[in-house]
């Protein structure tokens, strides 16, 4: 509960070593990946120079960075298109996933009947389904959304279903004893209990919806109808514009990282007071 | 802190009017296990009744039947002519604190009232009073993981009592606590019981706890779960540390312990030597 002031007490060698170890680990956690990253970029640059690799095959990191700034207008407007699909599909995945999960927990029969279909939808590669979607759906945005949604909704559905069903038996009895209605049990017991599970699913779905959006654009972009980041990559590939290809790739990666970080932060803020996963380890 | 109640104790055995009777109650589970067989038991208003017995004697099952969480296979429950209790007549304290981990102490105690549609503002005075009764004033905003085991159990008791039930059913509530905490909670529970005059049915496997708390101890035997013997604990309330260390208490414990051993042997006997 109370913070222990390390400077106020004299530590024995063992404890002092432990404190030093912890401080080192804290620094190392940030410094090591950063150092490796810098080293890798430097090596990349050197390889280009040592082997005289032309920039349409492997551009030097500096060139990529230049392109990132030079083509910023083009790339960022494309990024916005991809982001729009990503977030809309994530939103729909949340609504669909949670909605279906709630429906499933209302009746075992519904769950038994429909869960297999959700699995079928999940395990079939989206690239293989897309040609069908392409035939049946006209609107470009709808096509992409549907694709990204199919990829993203399953983790939310399966996690939330698990969460809604893993409520402590005694707590359920307690609600029953107090004459709680089905709705009250959902509102005050099952939904809050499912929150950690849902947030876990959301973190996975966030990344998947970006992947879904990009993959869908790739398949659709082959028909030259899209303007997202994926079509920039395809286009750059055709024109042997490797620097822009790399720049677009970096943008996608950073977007993915950012989505993950934001969702992790949301998860932490919601769970920090009560759930084990969000608590700092205490000795 | 602890106010001594001046007036005479609520009841020892069989003084108050009948609240509930179990008449020939039996329970057989779908897997064929007979949890309870032909249990006759009368619970009177103001009783502090303990169900004491080895594990598997059906004491928890009996409590669940009384709570209405399960229905008897045979026999009937008689709540003064009605077969089921009014829901608001029953408070239940589980073996674990069974709190909502995401809700703070206030919200946890408010919950039973909230489920009945009582608003936060309306419930606040009752909830705060209940928290004061279990000595948790000032902890309204704490979440369960910030509390010790004993404090969590206090929250659980406050939650069970917030609807002012006539009977409090407790299923080995203090079994997981350390002895010092358990003694303190026993004292505070008795104090609460004497002030509010409700009825308690208390399941335990501790001879010492049952004797210290109860006006009546019902010793149960296992396989099949049944009532072995009823004992009146003839010692006046309030009971406190002085009682806990008195020869009278020790004698009552010895007496109860002997009966419990008899109950355990009545199970083991035919089981091991029968054939």
What value does the average pLDDT of chain B take?
88
Unreliable spans of chain A are none
* Multimer state: heterodimer
Mean pLDDT of chain A: 88
Order of helices and strands of chain B: EEEHEEHHHEHEHEEHH
Strand order of the largest sheet of chain B: 5-6-7-3-8-9
Largest inter-chain contact set: A-B, 22 and 24 residues
CATH classification class of the domain at 18-98 and 165-273 in chain B: Alpha Beta
By CATH, the topology of the domain at 18-98 and 165-273 in chain B is Rossmann fold
Gyration radius from CA atoms of chain A, angstroms: 25 Å
Topology order of chain A in helix (H) and strand (E) letters? HHHHHHHHHH
Provide the number of structural domains of chain A: 2
SS elements, strand count of chain A: 0
CATH superfamily of the largest domain in chain A: MetI-like
Helix proportion of chain B: 25-40%
Net shape of chain B: globular
What keyword list fits this structure?
heterodimer, A: MetI-like fold, 10 helices, flat, B: 275 residues, Rossmann fold, 6-stranded mixed sheet, 3-stranded antiparallel sheet, 8 helices, 37% helix
Structure description:
Chain B: Pfam families: ABC_tran. The complex is a heterodimer of chains A (283) and B (275). By secondary structure, chain A is mainly alpha-helical. Chain A folds into 2 domains: 1-52, no CATH class; 63-278, MetI-like fold (Orthogonal Bundle). Chain A has helices at residues 13-50, 61-70, 72-106, 108-123, 126-136, 140-165, 169-177, 182-221, 229-238, 242-271. With 275 residues, chain B is of the alpha/beta class. Chain B has a domain at 18-98 and 165-273: 3-Layer(aba) Sandwich (Rossmann fold), CATH 3.40.50.300. Chain B has 8 helices and 9 strands. Chain B has helices at residues 59-67, 105-115, 120-133, 149-161, 179-196, 207-213, 241-244, 247-273, and strands spanning 18-28, 34-44, 48-52, 74-78, 90-93, 167-171, 199-204, 216-221, 226-232. In chain B, a hairpin with a 5-residue loop joins strand 1 (18-28) and strand 2. Chain B is globular, with a radius of gyration of 19 Å. Chain B starts with 17 loop residues before the first strand and ends with a helix. The chains are: A mainly alpha (283), B alpha/beta (275). The interface between A and B is medium-sized, with 22 and 24 residues.
